[in-house]
Automatic annotation (TrEMBL):
<dbReference type="InterPro" id="IPR006139">
    <property type="entry name" value="D-isomer_2_OHA_DH_cat_dom"/>
</dbReference>
<feature type="domain" description="D-isomer specific 2-hydroxyacid dehydrogenase catalytic">
    <location>
        <begin position="9"/>
        <end position="312"/>
    </location>
</feature>
<keyword id="KW-0560">Oxidoreductase</keyword>
<dbReference type="Pfam" id="PF02826">
    <property type="entry name" value="2-Hacid_dh_C"/>
</dbReference>
<feature type="domain" description="D-isomer specific 2-hydroxyacid dehydrogenase NAD-binding">
    <location>
        <begin position="105"/>
        <end position="277"/>
    </location>
</feature>
<protein>
    <submittedName>
        <fullName>Phosphoglycerate dehydrogenase</fullName>
    </submittedName>
</protein>
<comment type="similarity">
    <text>Belongs to the D-isomer specific 2-hydroxyacid dehydrogenase family.</text>
</comment>
<dbReference type="InterPro" id="IPR006140">
    <property type="entry name" value="D-isomer_DH_NAD-bd"/>
</dbReference>
<keyword id="KW-0520">NAD</keyword>
<dbReference type="Pfam" id="PF00389">
    <property type="entry name" value="2-Hacid_dh"/>
</dbReference>
Length: 317
């Protein structure tokens, strides 16, 4: 078996080589440096670069698996991959720990008035009459019920929060008190104090949230987006904030990235911005390698069961 990584895997390279002494590994710093003769013989491709398009994959005549070291696969030529019968795995769940922490960071920054107390500190003021809120018995609603919201929901239950999930069919998921289908979302928004988008980008989720979605939410709701920026257009989001249809927004992902300097979002008081960093962590590579090792073992043993984190090409996640 020949495995070609189109990126440096740091200390995971030695780990992989030691774990599979009979597998031939080739590590490149970037796809543009890959040798065509090596690509031609590759059984497994490890990557996350946009250069991995249909033209690039045409060079990989023997390819059986793309181990995508990122969660979103929407920029890959999925129809082409499906037509060739190439399996695709992603990094779903690798970022769950740190993103769950960020979600509660946003929530506590808001509820515990950290911004206000920091401003008072800078002004040498001691505002002891500030009255922070609590998340006890509050309701958090997740758009998406995958690994990230599942972990976050588990933490929310420890804080005695009520947890609602929205997924494609409304099927039940552990850790959620209630689950509804995506079509029913407008009927349940009013229950939520916090609404968190963690949906992937697919043909069905681009601009899924429109003006009516935000009109259906409580005007005191805190909307958090750590999924994909394309789920809502910036114009719709800005209008909802200007019209006070929602109270606060915390955003890590944007329709256009980097967020343009002239974006209205930068100057709005009721907006918290982070620059697409909620998934960053120094252990991400190790966790991605864990998935790859499990799947390489399955391939070597001719185990025909579904691979860990295998992507459903038709659904796009």
């Amino acid at each position: 078996m020949k495995v070609v990584a189109l990126m440096k895997l740091k200390d995971q390279e030695e780990r992989l080589v030691n774990a599979f002494p009979k597998v031939e590994f080739t590590f490149y710093k970037h796809p543009e440096l890959a040798d065509n003769d090596v690509l031609k013989e590759a059984d497994v491709l490890v990557a996350y670069h946009s250069e991995v398009d249909e033209t690039f994959l045409d060079k990989c005549k023997n390819l059986k698996l793309i181990a995508w070291f990122a969660t979103g696969v929407n920029n890959l030529p999925l129809d082409y991959i499906d037509k060739r019968g190439i399996k695709l795995t992603n990094a779903r769940g690798v970022h769950a720990i740190q993103i769950a922490e960020f979600i509660f960071g946003y929530i506590f920054n808001d509820i515990k008035l950290f911004k206000e107390t920091y401003e008072a500190q800078k002004n040498h003021e001691f505002k002891h009459k500030l009255n922070p809120g609590s998340i006890y018995n509050k309701t958090i609603l997740f758009l998406g019920t995958g690994k990230i919201p599942e972990r976050t929901a588990r933490i929310a239950k420890a804080f005695n929060m009520n947890v609602i999930g929205i997924n494609t069919t409304g099927h039940k998921v552990d850790e959620f008190d209630e689950v509804y289908s995506i079509e029913e979302r407008g009927k349940v928004y009013h229950k939520a104090d916090f609404i968190v988008n963690v949906l992937p980008e697919t043909d069905n989720t681009v601009h899924l949230l429109d003006e009516q979605d935000f009109k259906s939410m409580n005007d005191d709701v805190h909307f958090i987006n750590v999924g994909r920026g394309t789920v809502v257009s910036e114009d719709v989001l800005v209008k909802a904030l200007e019209n006070k249809e929602i109270r606060h927004v915390s955003i890590d992902v944007f329709e256009i990235e980097p967020l343009p300097e002239d974006s209205k979002l930068y100057d709005m008081e009721n907006v918290t911005i982070t620059p697409h960093i909620t998934g960053n962590d120094n252990r991400n590579m190790e966790r991605c390698a864990d998935i790859l090792i499990e799947n390489l073992n399955k391939m070597i043993e001719n185990d025909n069961s579904e691979l860990n984190n295998e992507v459903n090409i038709q659904s796009g996640y």
